[in-house]
């Protein structure tokens, strides 16, 4: 099946055409600055016109069979990918308050496809779905129950499509049945999340009600004392200003002035104390979470690194694992330096559990999920 995978951002549209029979990527691209004026497309409908124009030759040769959408927030309703219709689109739209930076753009992408190709099967694949297996003691916050009942305030978790894909690949590599596999998965990109895997399922994850909670990220603060928000509001900052501060001007960007891990590592290796402090804060927070999740799963069978930083920064992986000596984790220095698009073990033979690098492929996961839903609907 030939699937167009769409990842709609508030001002961008990332796309990929993938053949799920051969895993061939026929086309890929990114349209940015949507709605920002000038030569940029005015809206997601115009952006889809651009995508269609780029794909015209490919579509003429072999038309698309379906479209798969990455949807960030599925709330409590969506625990698996679903075939989109008007009611599903409206249900996703009703979740906009839970992900105001993401879900509105996801809905715009869905509606743009509907307008362009009204008969095209579309499937929504939710970032939150993999984490619907969290037990209540992991997802519930210690706040009045009315806040959960009225506003849905609870831990949802994100990056679920990536965590699920990587977990499956790791279990295959280690020849462990998925339903017996315990692991800690570290998705380290500009957004960062950690997931505790027990029996192949998510039982805890570092992102919460929104993607802001948890670890130090590229521009997000991760965990901070909630009273800081109250303090800043009393100092005269508005809700929007606080939101911008914590989501766009914190994390690595705030600590070092640059959210590019490569620049930070290079500066640290050149002796920059500011960069070294940034790496110490970031690796320390991550190691604490890994230790906690090792306990949560009853003893992990593997620690898995994935996403941009997790796959490519051998220096940062080394910093993190060096903090995990109490768990008996030891990297093989040579294996840790290897660059490959294939899953691999980077720990030494003497490591208490294997440490893996498993490249993620969210587009592939979305395309495969879309194929399964569409074939199931017509089966």
Give the gist of this structure.
The chain is an alpha/beta fold and 379 residues long. The chain is built from 15 helices and twelve strands. The protein has two domains: 2-126, Nucleotidyltransferase, domain 5; 176-362, Nucleotidyltransferase, domain 5, CATH 3.30.420.40.
Q: Kindly name the structural category.
A: alpha/beta
Can you tell me the number of structural domains? 2
Overall form: globular
Oligomeric category: single chain
What is the string of SSEs from the N terminus onward? EEEHEEHHEHHHEEEHHHHHEHHHEEH
**DSSP helix fraction:** 40-55%
Q: What is the CA–CA distance across the termini? A: 14 Å
Instruction: Give the second-level CATH assignment, the architecture of the largest domain.
Output: 2-Layer Sandwich
CATH class of the largest domain: Alpha Beta
Instruction: Output the number of helix runs.
Output: 15
The share of residues in extended strands comes to 15-25%
Strand order of the largest sheet: 3-2-1-4-6-5
Mean pLDDT score: 92
CATH superfamily of the largest domain: ATPase, nucleotide binding domain
């Amino acid at each position: 099946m030939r699937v167009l995978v769409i990842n709609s951002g508030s001002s961008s549209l990332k796309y990929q055409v993938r053949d799920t029979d051969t895993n061939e990527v026929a086309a890929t691209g990114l349209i940015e600055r949507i709605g920002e004026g000038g030569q940029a497309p005015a809206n997601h409908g115009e952006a889809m016109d651009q995508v269609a124009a780029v794909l015209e030759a490919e579509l003429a040769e072999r038309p698309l069979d379906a479209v798969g959408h990455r949807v960030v927030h599925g709330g409590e309703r969506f625990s698996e990918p679903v075939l989109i219709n008007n009611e599903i689109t409206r249900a996703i739209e009703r979740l906009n308050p839970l992900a105001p930076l993401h879900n509105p753009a996801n809905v715009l992408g869905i509606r743009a496809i509907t307008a362009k190709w009204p008969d095209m099967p579309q499937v929504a694949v939710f970032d939150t779905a993999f984490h619907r297996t969290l037990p209540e003691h992991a997802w519930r916050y210690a706040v009045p129950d009315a806040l959960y009942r009225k506003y849905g305030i609870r831990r949802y978790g994100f990056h679920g499509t990536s965590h699920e894909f990587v977990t499956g690949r790791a279990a295959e590599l280690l020849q462990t049945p998925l339903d017996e596999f315990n692991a800690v998965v570290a998705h380290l990109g500009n957004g960062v999340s950690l997931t505790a895997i027990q029996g192949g399922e998510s039982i805890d994850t570092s992102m919460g009600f929104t993607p802001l909670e948890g670890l130090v990220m590229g521009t997000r603060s991760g965990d901070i004392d909630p009273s800081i928000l109250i303090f800043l509001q009393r100092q005269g900052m508005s809700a929007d200003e606080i939101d911008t501060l914590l989501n766009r001007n914190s994390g690595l960007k705030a600590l070092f002035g640059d959210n590019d891990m490569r620049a930070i590592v290079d500066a640290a290796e050149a002796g920059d104390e500011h960069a070294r402090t940034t790496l110490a804060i970031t690796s320390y927070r991550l190691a604490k979470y890994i230790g906690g999740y090792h306990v949560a799963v009853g003893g992990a069978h593997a620690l898995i690194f994935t996403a941009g930083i997790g796959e490519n920064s051998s220096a940062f992986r080394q910093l993190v694992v060096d903090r995990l000596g109490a768990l008996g984790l030891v990297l093989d220095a040579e294996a840790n330096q290897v660059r490959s698009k294939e899953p691999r073990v980077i720990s030494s033979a003497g490591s208490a559990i294997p440490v893996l690098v498993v490249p993620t492929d969210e587009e592939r996961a979305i395309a495969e999920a879309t194929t399964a839903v569409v074939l199931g609907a017509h089966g």
